[in-house]
């Protein structure tokens, strides 16, 4: 596809598309802080879930104990 002034518009479009895409080096450039930040967040979540599991275990144990104490109906 050629324009009226003799320039190839399909070549311009291809060049513009290539320039807008990140280079392979940029695509695979690894953020070195990212994994460390995620690890800290994951550790915090793990501790939070551990506390929640402990709370649920205690609550279930209390419920079981209260059911065992109550007289049968």
TrEMBL record:
Disordered: annotated segments: 1-30
Protein name listed in UniProt: Uncharacterized protein
Organism: Bradyrhizobium valentinum
